[in-house]
Write a structure and sequence with these properties.
7 helices; single chain; DNA-binding; 8-oxo-7,8-dihydroguanine DNA N-glycosylase activity; N-terminal domain of MutM-like DNA repair proteins; class I DNA-(apurinic or apyrimidinic site) endonuclease activity; four-stranded antiparallel β-sheet; Helicase, Ruva Protein, domain 3; alpha+beta; 325 residues; zinc ion binding
DNA sequence: TCTAGAACCTGTGTGC
DNA sequence: TGCACACAGGTTCTAG
C-alpha cells in the first residue's frame, strides 16, 4: 500500500528516468483514473475563473483535455508532498499530479512491452539513449489517478504546489530539521477531540502516514491507537514524530513495503520492508519489544478501527481507560 | 465547525 | 466447481 516511503521511491525513479523528457503522445485506456482531472481552463475548484468548461464532462472529454494539455510538454523534476507526487510542466504554471491510492503503480517501460491487465494511462516520451520510452499508470482498484492541474503558491512550501495539494500538511521528513514542528503537532493534537490514529491519518494535520506506518509508529512510541488526542503530552508527541520518521526512513532504505504485487517501483521491483514490520499484520505473534525487555511478552492484537485493521501490543501499548490512561 | 462513517473500487481468500 | 460474501484501505463527501 503506497504511503510516503513508497511514493518517495517512485519519485526517485521518475527523477532518474523521466525528468527532462517531452510527452510525445498520451493514451487514456480508462478515464476513471482521470476522475479528478478538471478540463481547461483550470482546475482550481475554489477559483470561479477556473470553473470547468462543462459542469459534468464526459469521460471522453476528460481524456481529450488531459491529452491536449500534456502533449508536447516537457516533464520537470518530480516533487512530492505526503503521498502526492507531481511532475511540473515546462509551462511553469501547471503540473501532472499523481496519486497512487491503494494500488496505483507508475512504471517506466518499453513501448513494445505487453500492456498490464490494469493499465489505465500511458505517456509516450521523447527518446533518450538507454531509457524506456513509455510512462505507464497501472491501477487495479482505481483509488488513485492522474490529473493536470494548476500550480499555486503555498505558505508552507518552498515552491508552488498543485491546487489539490494545498491543504496537505508537511510530512515528517519535511519538518525533521524544524525545531518547532513537535510543538505545532502537539498543539494541533490537543485541539482535536478524536483518536490518535485517526489524527495521524488526517493528511491535513500531518501527511504521508497511512494505516501501516501509523500502526508501526504507534507501536514504536508505545501509544495505543485509540488514545484521545486531547490527552497526549509533549513528550509523547515528540516520541511519536521521532518514531514516524524512523520507521519511514527504514522503509525507504528497504525500497518500501510490498505485501503483494500492488506496490512496486518504476522498474517493477518490490520493496522489502514488510519483513521488518513489528506490529502491522503480526496478529497472534509475540511482541518483539516485550520479549527483549524481559517482561511477559504481549501477543499482537488486531482490532477494527475506522473500517480498517489496527494492530497493537496490549502490554506495551495499553488500551486507554474511558478514553484516558 | 468539527467528527465520524459511508462510498468508491476490484482481486483474493474463505465458506458453503 | 461455482457462487456469495468479506476483506484490504486513501480520499472525498455527507450527515449529525
Amino acid at each position: 500500500m503506497p504511503e510516503l516511503p513508497e511514493v518517495e521511491v517512485v519519485r526517485r525513479g521518475l527523477a532518474a528516468w523521466v525528468a527532462g523528457r517531452q510527452v510525445m503522445d498520451v493514451d487514456v485506456h480508462d478515464a476513471r483514473s482521470l476522475r479528478r482531472h478538471e478540463p481547461s481552463p483550470g482546475s482550481d475548484p475554489g477559483n470561479p475563473a477556473d470553473a470547468p468548461t462543462q459542469p459534468d464532462p464526459t469521460p471522453f472529454a476528460r481524456g481529450e483535455d488531459f491529452r491536449a494539455r500534456l502533449r508536447g510538454r516537457t516533464l520537470q523534476e518530480p516533487q512530492r508532498r505526503g503521498k502526492y507526487l507531481w511532475l511540473p510542466l515546462d509551462s511553469a504554471d501547471s503540473a501532472l499530479l499523481i496519486h497512487l491510492g491503494m494500488s496505483g503503480q507508475v512504471l517506466v517501460e518499453d513501448r513494445a512491452a505487453a500492456a498490464e491487465k490494469h493499465l489505465k494511462i500511458s505517456l509516450d516520451l521523447s527518446a533518450r539513449p538507454g531509457a524506456p520510452e513509455q510512462l505507464r499508470f497501472v491501477d487495479q482498484r482505481i483509488f488513485g489517478g492522474m490529473q493536470v492541474t494548476r500550480l499555486i503558491a503555498a505558505d508552507h512550501a518552498s515552491g508552488a504546489v498543485p491546487a489539490p495539494v494545498a491543504h496537505i500538511a508537511a510530512d515528517p521528513f519535511e519538518t525533521a530539521a524544524d525545531p518547532s514542528a513537535d510543538e505545532r503537532l502537539f498543539r494541533a493534537l490537543r485541539r482535536r477531540r478524536s483518536g490518535l490514529k485517526r489524527a495521524l491519518l488526517d493528511q491535513s494535520l500531518i501527511s504521508g502516514i497511512g494505516n501501516i506506518y501509523a500502526d508501526e509508529a504507534l507501536w514504536r512510541a508505545g501509544l495505543h491507537f485509540a488514545r484521545r488526542t486531547e490527552t497526549v503530552t509533549r513528550d509523547e508527541t515528540s516520541r511519536l514524530l521521532t518514531a514516524a520518521r524512523a520507521v519511514m526512513s527504514a522503509a525507504l532504505e528497504a525500497g518500501g513495503t510490498s505485501f503483494d504485487s500492488l506496490y512496486v517501483n518504476v522498474n517493477g521491483a518490490s520493496g522489502y520492508f514488510s519483513r521488518s514490520l513489528q506490529a502491522y499484520g503480526q496478529a497472534g505473534g509475540e511482541c518483539s519489544r516485550c520479549a527483549v525487555d524481559g517482561r511477559s511478552a504481549g501477543v499482537i492484537q488486531r482490532a477494527k478501527f475506522m473500517g480498517r485493521s489496527s494492530y497493537w501490543c496490549p502490554v506495551c501499548q495499553p488500551r486507554p481507560r474511558n478514553g484516558r490512561w
